[in-house]
Amino acid sequence: MAKQSNATKRLLWIVGGLLILVVILGVVGRVTGMFGSGSDATSVETAKAEIRSITQVVTASGQVQPETDVAISPDVSGEIIELPVREGDQIARGMLLARIKPDFYLTQVEQAEAGVLQSKANMAQRQADLLNAEAELKRQRDLFAKQAISQSALEASETQSDVATAALDAARYAVQSAEARLREAQEQVSKTAIYSPMDGTISRLDVELGERVVGTSQMAGTEMMRVARLDQMEIEIEVNENEIVNVALGDSAAIEVDAYPDRSFRGVITEIANSARTTAAGTQEQVTEFPVKVRILDPHNVDSASGDAVIASGEVPMPANGIARFRPGMSGTVDVFTETVDNVVAVPIQAVTVRDFARLPSNDEDEETPVESDSVATGPPAEDLRRVVFLVADGVASMVEVETGISDDTHIEVRSGLAGGEEVVIGPYRAVSRDLEDGGAVETGGQGSLPGFVASGS
Predict the structure, then answer these.
(1) Angle of the 103-145 helix axis to the 151-190 helix axis, nearest 10
(2) For 313-321, what is the mean pLDDT?
(3) What is the pLDDT of residues 257-273, one digit of tens each?
């Protein structure tokens, strides 16, 4: 019995000690902030509104392609009997690219020549008939003058002469038609030899020696090869319909090609499509984008570069030394610099949020006004959404309405509402977007910033 009493006492002492320890830890934790802040203030992160330059950027992806890329297709059909070029060859304007077997077309030329000769022989016969008809008409007129024949005989002779004249005219037209068919046949023969329309490179070769091709006179024809100017390259990107309004001809750009991950190339907008390309039309995944062409200005595929006077200094980083070797179809990403503003007030993007001014406490007083029984309920007030930032001063948050402008990846321009130097709340996200109220108590854990971003102005 005594042993049970001693065990019970020890257990009570242990439980009591644990309770005392828990109380002490709770008091210490609350004082130090481990289990509560000790106040109702909202913990926030802040940053300074600063004067800096902001460049608005539109980012899109696309593929590298030559500015000039000519598809070579034959005008006539047949078998390729000569193919002196290979993919990647440098060629000059007028150089032979391919030759199609001309036997069939040479036969057509011979037939057309025979047709011309036959038409000319027929015309000569019609000339002789006309001479005979004219001589007969002269004799008939002499006899009619002597009243040796009747009027009807004379008219019959005149009609025969007119018929002979018409037959000769028809023979002349037949000769012209036959000569035209001959010229067409000769032109078909000349088209069996295909020559380069410009200086460039064989960027793609889709046929082999001995292969049969279809001419463009029959449907679309066979695309045999492509001739491109690889020293004049561009990248075609797809810009979303919401951002295309910010892009203009002549805007500078920074181009990153996947094949050169550590380099950036300068570019300029040269063409913006007027018509959109729509994918997945009629579905929830429908996307509307506009093709935009960006000329690559830095040296590539050649030993010298084109001029780059259109690029504003400081906007686009210079590439590393060395000539890049671009090939059609390479993937890349383009940052288009659409607009730049200097020396403006800017805050981190996450500092700007939206509040419904129609639901602020100052606007809710009218809701307590009694409504007469015969009045018509108007429902909740209409939304009045405005952009605001929260400033921190002496542990109190104050809401300030702002007008914003352009933005870059980290900061947004504030056109009105701030003068610069104010301490603005940038986080946490829930506090900025929902919890903070005008006049609410806050406590800061030090100024926050995004790693890797440094203000460009002071």
Answers:
(1) 160
(2) 53
(3) 999 988 999 999 999 99
Give the tens place of pLDDT for each residue, 11-50: 777 777 778 887 777 666 655 555 554 457 788 899 999 9
* Beta partners for residue 290, in sequence order: 239
Residues 172, 175, 181, 185, Cα dihedral to 10°: -150
3-state secondary structure the chain: CHHHHHHHHHHHHHHHHHHHHHHHHHHHHHHHCCCCCCCCCEEEEEEECEEEEEEEEEEEEEEEEECCEEEECCCCCEEEEECCCCCCCEECCCCEEEEECCHHHHHHHHHHHHHHHHHHHHHHHHHHHHHHHHHHHHHHHHHHHCCCCCHHHHHHHHHHHHHHHHHHHHHHHHHHHHHHHHHHHHHHHHCCEEECCCCEEEEEECCCCCCEECCCCCCCCCCCEEEECCCCEEEEEEEECCCHHHCCCCCEEEEEECCCCCCCEEEEEEEECCCCEEECCCCCCCEEEEEEEEEECCCECCCCCCCCCCCCCCCCCCCCCCCECCCCCCEEEEEEEEEEEEEEEEEEHHHCEEEEHHHCHHHCHHHHCCCCCCCCCCCCCCCCEEEEEEEEECCEEEEEECEEEEECCCEEEEEECCCCCCEEEEECHHHHHHHCCCCCEEEEEEECCCCCCCCCCC
Q: Which CATH class, in words, describes the domain spanning 102-191? A: mainly alpha
- Beta partners for 238? 291
pLDDT tens string 170-179: 999 999 999 9
- CATH number of this structure's domain 69-101+192-228: 2.40.50.100
CA atoms of 157 and 137, how far apart (whole Å): 5
Report the distance separating Cα 154 and Cα 160, nearest Å: 10
Task: Give yes or no for residue 331 having a pLDDT over 80.
Answer: yes
Domain residue extents for the chain: 40-68+229-364+382-458, 69-101+192-228, 102-191
- In CATH, the number for domain 40-68+229-364+382-458 is 2.40.30.170
pLDDT digits 0-9 by tens, 244-253: 999 999 999 9
